[in-house]
Specification:
The complex is a heterodimer of chains A (385) and B (170). Chain A has 385 residues and is of the alpha/beta class. Chain A has a domain at 5-121 and 208-223: Thiolase/Chalcone synthase (Peroxisomal Thiolase, Chain A, domain 1). Chain A is built from 12 helices and 11 strands. Chain A has helices spanning 24-38, 88-101, 121-124, 138-154, 158-172, 187-192, 220-223, 254-267, 272-275, 288-295, 304-310, 333-349; strands at residues 5-12, 48-53, 79-82, 107-115, 195-198, 200-201, 210-219, 231-240, 278-280, 362-369, 374-381. In chain A, strands 3-2-4-7-1-8-11-10-9 form a 9-stranded mixed sheet. Chain A has a two-stranded antiparallel ribbon with strand order 5-6. In chain A, strand 5 and strand 6 (200-201) form a beta hairpin. In chain A, helix 2 (88-101) crosses helix 12 and helix 10 crosses helix 11. Chain B has one domain (29-169). The longest helix of chain B has 11 residues, at 29-39. With 170 residues, chain B is mainly β. Chain B is globular and about 65 Å long. Chain B contains 1 helix and 8 strands. Classes of the chains: A alpha/beta (385), B mainly beta (170). At the A-B interface, helix 4 and strand 5 of A face helix 1, strand 2, strand 4, strand 5 and strand 6 of B.
């Protein structure tokens, strides 16, 4: 039987387009020290450190974990780096949790970050390969045809992408850490924003951010002594699949469906729509809200957009999604997955501030990456599983 | 670069420019070597998965789904196909020989069971799923062992393919 594990501390930076006031190390330190303070512990209490970030090419710094060892308090302790593309923040949290769940360590710190201003992620995502033709620039170019596939299958109206774009930015206004603060955003403003990769408009995409997120996880005997509420980890799950193979469902990959089924089974959830109180889902382009509502089996196939349309996913809806403002409001890529996991934990701790969902007891954190080929998820609860 | 010497600059040094340049040597391997060699002759060679019989193009020698080597005997494919899905792009990128806005497509080549990501030269208002297209090659004398021998695809005068015939590739 695995050790019962909880999140006892959470920290994040103020996310912004350029955090030139801090180095990469300083950025990480800002999040990590906030997590330690929240966990009411010191660097000496940490047994091991797990660090995650997206591809090294995003900043052009190879293996940054080498020079960041001291910044994350890794000296003379076990330290390891995780990489699973855009989902890496989520899998970093899961690796940290598993070190406690396995009974190997008592308290583990995980940190994930990206300092996008130091290079150009869109360039890094557009490297030409000798066996394929350069066709598009950035992740939007890759995902736009898949979104079109979803729209074709589901009959999702154009309004849905706009609605999500507005909702998440309004939620971000309640989150002081969020990068984008677009107080005057309206559906018309989204509609009028430039079409970048049809059907994705400028305001339907995520920003490029500098930021970091950190969490302290602890075993039950430590967590139950915490003076603040903790988030108990009910279940974690990861899945992957190849980017391309014949007959691959690129819109709704098998890996997401398998991941969701297994996660809920581990968490003892039979009706996710009813039993989960709120969710932070990795939505880098607004259309991915309805897509992952289906990919996480919260909605029936081709019906996910109806949740958005009905207002169910709004902060005051019956299934709030991306209360923090989501990836659409802050996207330090490597940290983005961990931020989703952290928001889920903040919600069940009752510590989400103005974007708190009243009485949230069970929350879903979700991340995906690569060509929709890595999925990391967890369920956290205010009560022990 | 600024005209001033660094020590004459005022205020803290917050950002330094440190350009990095990378050149790769790509070991093609048997499969990509054959593919690229055939491209130099204007031929598109796919390979079949021995497990489910599906034809991969471009093939990398093994089936990503089943983890087995693809059949050694190559399958020659037409340079015509069907648009499974697409996007209209309004952000410029180096190397794309089309003016903005341009169309990117996932094409299912006739005889292949995979999608090929490529460019489509057409009126952007006309592009649609199921559209029939054909490769526009560079002039023969410019062909090299490169997938870039195909400049882009162009619409052809054939009836649209029915949705059911390509929907699994979206």
């Amino acid at each position: 039987m695995a050790e019962l594990t909880a999140v006892i501390g959470i920290g994040q930076t103020k996310h912004a387009a350029k955090r030139i006031d801090v180095s990469m190390a300083g950025l990480i330190r800002e999040a990590a020290e906030r997590a330690l303070a929240d966990a009411e512990c010191t660097w000496a209490d940490i047994d091991a450190v797990v660090i995650g970030k997206a591809p090294d090419m995003f900043e052009g710094v190879m293996m940054p974990e080498l020079f960041l060892n001291d910044a994350v308090g890794g000296a003379y302790k076990p330290m390891l780096r995780v990489h699973t593309a855009g989902s890496v923040g989520g899998s970093t949290g899961i690796v940290a949790a598993s070190l406690v769940q396995a009974g190997i360590h008592d308290r583990v710190l995980c940190v994930a970050f990206e300092k996008q201003s130091e290079s150009n992620a869109t360039w890094a995502l557009s490297i030409s390969m000798p066996f394929s033709v350069a066709t598009v620039v950035g992740a939007g170019g890759y995902f736009a045809p898949l979104i079109r596939g979803y729209i074709r299958r589901s009959g999702c109206p154009e309004e849905i992408g706009i609605q999500v774009a507005v909702k998440d930015r309004l939620n971000a206004l309640k989150n002081p850490y969020a990068h984008l603060q677009l107080a005057d955003i309206t559906p018309q403003m989204v509609r009028d924003s430039p079409m970048l990769w049809d059907p994705i408009r400028y305001l339907e995409t995520c920003p490029s951010s500098d930021g970091a997120c950190a969490m302290v996880m602890a075993k039950e005997s430590i967590a139950k002594r915490a003076s603040k509420p903790v988030a108990w980890i009910h279940a974690t799950e990861m899945r992957s699949e190849p980017t391309m193979f014949s007959g691959r469902d690129q819109v709704m990959p098998r890996a997401t469906l398998d991941n969701a089924k297994s996660l809920y089974e581990k968490a003892g959830i039979t009706n996710p729509r009813k039993e989960i109180d709120c969710a932070e889902i990795y939505v880098p382009f607004s259309w991915y809200e309805p897509m992952w509502m289906e990919g996480m089996l919260i909605s029936d196939t081709n019906q996910g957009w109806k949740m958005t349309e009905s207002g169910a996913t709004a902060l005051d809806g019956d299934f709030p999604v991306n209360m923090s403002g989501g990836v659409l409001s802050s996207n330090p890529i490597g940290a983005s997955g961990l931020l989703r996991f952290a928001e889920a934990a903040l919600q069940v701790r009752g510590m989400a501030g103005e974007h708190q969902v009243d009485g949230a007891k069970k929350a879903l954190g979700h991340a995906y990456g690569g060509g929709s080929q890595y999925f990391s998820t967890w369920i956290v609860g205010s009560e022990k599983p | 670069m600024s005209d001033k010497k660094p020590e004459e600059k005022e205020g803290p040094v917050q950002v330094l420019q440190t350009p990095v340049r990378l050149e790769y040597v790509f070991s093609a391997g048997q499969s990509a070597s054959r593919l690229l060699g055939a491209m130099a002759k204007g031929k598109l060679l796919g390979q079949r998965c021995p497990v489910d019989g599906r034809v991969y193009f471009p093939s990398r020698g093994s089936c990503p789904q089943h983890g087995v080597p693809l059949d050694g005997a190559p399958v020659e494919l037409a340079d015509k196909g069907t648009v499974a899905t697409y996007s209209i792009v309004r952000i410029p990128i180096e190397k794309v020989p089309l003016e903005l806005p341009y169309v990117t497509v996932q094409v299912v080549l006739d005889g292949a069971d995979t999608v090929l990501m490529h460019l489509l030269k057409c009126d952007v208002d006309k592009v649609h799923m199921g559209m029939r297209v054909q490769a526009k090659w560079k002039p023969r004398e410019e062909w090299t062992s490169s997938v870039e021998n195909i400049l882009y695809f162009e619409p052809i005068d054939e009836p649209d393919a029915p949705y059911d015939s390509f929907k699994e590739h979206i």
